[in-house]
Every structure is written in C-alpha cells, then in structure tokens.
Amino acid sequence: MEHYVKCREELLKFIDENNCAPIMVRLAWHDSGNFDKRISSWPECGGANGSIIHEPEISYGANAGLTKAVNFLKPFKQKYAAVSWADLIQMASACAIQVTGGPILPMKYGRVDVKDGSACPGRTSRGTADNAGLPDAMAPFGCGAKQPATHLRNIFHRMGFDDEGIVALSGAHTLGRAFQERSGVVENGYGDAKVQGMGFFGTAEASPYTKSGCPVRHDGKAGFGMPGGKAWTSNWLTFDNSYFQFLKRSKDENLLWLPTDAALHEDPQFKVYFDRFADSKDAFFDAYSKAHTKLSELGSKFEPAGGTFNEVVEQGGKRTVEAALRCKTGELNYCRLTMEKVTTEPNGMLTQMLLLMPQDLD
Ligand code: HEM
C-alpha cells in the first residue's frame, strides 16, 4: 500500500507545480470513456484499463494532445512500477480534482492493465463514426444523432450514466481549455500570439483568460503553464461550479460554450440538474464525486477483486474524516467518521485505515 500513498503524494505536488490538472482529468476520462456496458468480456468492454497509452488509441483524433499527459506520468510509472498504468492515470485525475480545489474523491486501486495495443477498442467498435465512442462536441455527431442532447444520452447511456451523471461529469469543463491544434473546436492555438506552421495552427491569439499572467488558480498563486486556447470558465484551474453559472453571467465571447454544453440547459431534463449545480456547489461536488468515481472504475478488472488500496481521506477539520468504504459485497458506503484522535505522519498524511464491518455503516 505504501507505494500508492507515496505515488499519490508526489502526484499531488507535481500536478500542482506544473499546473497540468486539466489534461490529467481529460486523459483519465478518455481511457474510461470507451466503456461499453453491452460487452461482458474484459478487456473488450473497454474502460479504465490503461489502453490509452498504446497505439492506435492514443492517436485517435479525440485523444489529440494526450501524449503530453502520458509523458508527464512516465517517470511515476518508472518509480512506482507496482502501480498499474490504469491506476496511475485514474489516480492523477483524482489528484488533479483535489489540487484545484475540488472534492477529495473516494478512489479504489488495483486495476489490471491491458497487455498491449491489440486491446485498444477499434475506432468504430462502439457504433460511432470514430474515436471508439467518445463524444463529439458539435454536429455531425458520430452516433448519427441530430441533436446534441440525444448524442450525449446515446454516448453516456452506453457507459451506464443517467441524466444527472451526464450533467455532473460535464462540469469537469470548469477546468481546462480547448486548442485549435488538438480538438480544433476553437481558433485559439498554443501560446499567447496566433502562430501558424511547424504544427501550430492557431488563427487567434490567447483569450484574456488564457494569456500569460492572468490569475486562474484557486489559491490565487501566479502561473498556469502554457498560455493559449479558450476556456469554459475564467478561472479554469479552479474546480468549482462556475461552469454552471453560464446562464447567470453576461455573454462573454472570450469563453467557450459548445453545442454539447448548451444542451445541458436547453434540454428540460438536463436543465433540472444544470440549475441545481449552478445554485449549489455542494450539490455539484456530491454528484460529481459519485459520477467521477464510477467513471474511474468502468470496465476495470481489479486484482484482488476488492482493490488493493481503498483510500480513506481526511477532509476539513482534523477530527472529521469522510470516507468511502467498500463492503465485502462490493457496495460503496459513504460515511463521515468523527474520531477522538487521527494518527498522522509528520506531513499530515492519514495513515491509519479504519475498517468497519458493513453492519456498522448506515
Ligand atoms: C459531455 C461530452 C464531452 C465533450 C463533447 C467534450 C469535449 C471536449 C473538447 C472538445 C475538449 C477540448 C480538447 C482540446 O482541444 O484540447 C475537451 C477538453 C476537456 N474535457 Fe471534455 N468533453 C466531454 C466530456 C468530458 C468529461 C466527462 C470530462 C471529465 C469528467 C471532460 C474533461 C475535460 C477536460 C478537463 C478538458 C480540458 C483539457 C485541457 O485543458 O487540456 N470532458 N472536452
């Protein structure tokens, strides 16, 4: 268990120092997002199994730019060989949510990696025109749908998510940016100025929210890595519910809003959740935590079946611990434990695992 704790600790520091949280979240989501619940065999069902590091998957159009994220993780994989790629990718994403001010996610580790690229799901294997069933941000939609809301439901129902899960997960766009060189959905490219040639395609300069020097970190510290691109929120290195403030803020041409984002407040069923998350950060964090944890385990094969390391994390005051404990039946139970004394190492990392019997949890 020790290497998981150490790896997690170093990832938190690395992601914070390098301001690379958004791309880590996108990498993990794209590894999971080709899961197909209709397929019962592993690894054919896809999901969080590390296949994204291999060719051909890493070169699918939807994954443009994600080699950078895989390269960020290579030194961690070298140092902590016992942590599988599938675990490392999901751990980095959970750390990214945490360091940007989001919830501490109840994660479970012990995922088995696919052997090699032969396990990558084919581009059209999920019934979409490309990208092994990852969503498109605008028409033409690869699943054949005419409307973005129908497209979102087609794609996310295949993974097992309902409307609430779809809206909650879309809130991950509170972080990060889109680039001309990657998805091509915006004109803004890499860097402050518009640059063309040698792999740079940007035909517009960085927005006021993505140019060098603008403050976007949740702790107000300076710096954010590479300038450029266009973001959904003005504080795109802060995980909060500002993505859902779209209807409450005045129109801003410098922020990104794609047809699949608009579907979340234009479709009446989605809008119920969109409004709820706009009104309450707590409601968003709660729904996001559940959906993200589920996403991180889609299609994963755990060895042993219950996982090697289930995190018990400290949140808020020193004495209150929010925990997700997995029962022997496989169910995840969320609970809040108030303890007399928490045993920690000098750096404050919680080291004592509390094991409760399922009958002790309500
Ligand atoms: C709902 C359907 C979704 C669509 C159509 C979509 C589309 C996109 C697009 C076009 C980009 C820009 C990529 C680029 O040019 O670099 C992007 C970035 C991103 N996506 Fe999504 N996405 C969806 C769902 C999700 C989900 C479920 C998550 C995570 C739970 C997620 C997390 C992110 C993050 C964090 C970025 C920013 C990456 C960066 O700044 O490097 N997305 N998405």
Question: Explain this structure to me?
Answer:
This protein is mainly α and 362 residues long. The protein folds into 2 domains: 2-176 and 232-297, Peroxidase, domain 1, CATH 1.10.520.10; 314-360, no CATH class. Helices cover 31% and strands 7% of the residues. The chain contains 9 helices and 7 strands; from the N terminus they run ααααβααββαααββββ. The chain has helices at 2-18, 21-32, 67-79, 85-99, 148-159, 163-170, 259-266, 268-279, 281-297; strands at 108-109, 177-178, 230-231, 309-310, 312-314, 320-326, 332-338. It has a 3-stranded antiparallel beta sheet with strand order 5-6-7, with no helix packed on it. Strands 1-4 form a two-stranded antiparallel sheet. A two-stranded antiparallel ribbon has the order 2-3. α2 crosses α4 and α7 crosses α8 (268-279). Residues 312-324 and 338-362 have low confidence and may be disordered. Keywords: Heme, Iron, Metal-binding, Oxidoreductase, Peroxidase. Pfam families: peroxidase. This is Plant heme peroxidase family profile domain-containing protein. Belongs to the peroxidase family. It comes from Durusdinium trenchii.
